[in-house]
Amino acid sequence: MKVISLDHITINCLDINITRRFYEDFLNLKPLNKVDMGDHVLHYYELPGTRLELIEYIEEQKIYQTGNTDLGIYRHMAVVVDDLDEAFAKCKAMNISINLEPQYIAQIDKKIMLIKDPNGVEIELM
What is the spatial order of strands in the sheet that 8-12 belongs to? Predict the structure, then answer.
């Protein structure tokens, strides 16, 4: 077996409207389409090289809280941006939760920052 590509990344949303505003207004992702699955709705966004899939559940679901160092969980997605300092300023202006302010990490030879989306999903900006 050979992996061909990444098709999509999925996030179960606490509040679809707040989540959509975050991905549209902060990350400037372009909405693609919606798919009604009966008990939930899939909201697709263009993510360079793949797609982001946001899930809006119709019925109330359990909410689990995990920390970014808990074991056995998906940790984060990392996206490359054209201006990390601009992203930092935009985070502050939009009151977006910042886990790690922009800094150079010598071990990976990259300047990064870590933020959280409205669902608590960590995103690494580099």
Answer: 8-12, 50-57, 40-47, 30-36
